[in-house]
Design a protein that fits this description.
alpha+beta; 3 strands
């Protein structure tokens, strides 16, 4: 029996890859009174529902979507989290 699963994918730049948006935010924060902030990285969040028999299969399906469509594997990493059915 297939079930609808809520899934969140967090996409972020790989370590060592320049993140100009994160750098801009990091430079602006002290002017707004936020001191001591470092290593700001900006990514994207993708939320979706998928049909699968169980949570591990839902995760595998979304990981395949990441590899084939959602991310550029040369410069981005993805973390898949299956929330609930």
């Amino acid at each position: 029996m297939t079930v609808q699963w809520n899934v969140v994918v967090e996409v972020s730049p790989r370590a060592g890859i320049a993140d100009p948006e994160g750098a801009t935010i990091e430079r602006a924060l002290p002017a707004l009174g936020f001191e001591g902030v470092s290593d700001v990285r900006v990514g994207k969040s993708i939320r979706l529902r998928v049909e699968a028999d169980d949570a591990p299969r839902a995760a595998l399906l979304v990981e395949d979507m990441c590899a084939r469509f959602f991310i550029n594997p040369v410069i981005e990493d993805a973390r898949v989290e299956v929330l609930d059915s």
